[in-house]
Design brief:
Globin-like; globular
């Protein structure tokens, strides 16, 4: 397994490949539900936990919503698209200031959960490669610019 994380270039629209069918075949929908439940339970206590609802019932809605998306991305039923339509990562995440550091924290939580998941390395690598590139679409703040803005506000 290679949990490599490459740097995001703000404004770039990187192309990604969806996970290979082996990922969902091995994990199955129930496994994907567990994977994301464990992931969100971990991320809520991370440095970016403030991006997610703190109320249990609201967090459960986010889990269910995102599980549908990732099941579809992994080759499962198109329940997400039928319910929501086209998914735009930038528009969905624009209400949050997401830096490269926040992306790496998100990926770090996913890596921790994936390491404990009992599927083949081929299946894990396929999912990781998808997430690593796909997550770049959430980054919407240049960390250098954010720091410069903070200095100007304080000064």
């Amino acid at each position: 397994m290679n949990y490599h994380v490459s740097k995001t270039i703000l404004g770039e629209n990187p192309k990604f490949d969806f996970p290979k069918p082996i990922f969902l075949e091995e994990l199955k929908e129930e496994g994907l539900v567990k994977l994301f439940s464990d992931f969100y339970d971990l991320i809520i206590d991370s440095d970016i936990g403030n991006f997610f609802p703190q109320e249990e019932d609201e967090l459960e809605k986010i889990k269910a919503h995102n599980v549908k998306f990732f099941i579809e991305a992994a080759g499962g039923p198109k329940d997400y698209s039928q319910a929501v339509g086209h998914f735009d990562m930038l528009k969905t995440h624009e209400q949050f200031s997401i830096t490269e550091k926040a992306r790496r924290e998100w990926l770090g939580c996913m890596e921790e959960v994936l390491r404990k998941t009992d599927i083949s390395d081929e299946a894990k690598q396929s999912f990781w490669d998808f997430l690593e590139v796909f997550s770049k679409h959430t980054v919407n703040v240049d960390e250098k610019q954010e720091l410069e803005d903070l200095v100007v506000k304080k000064g």
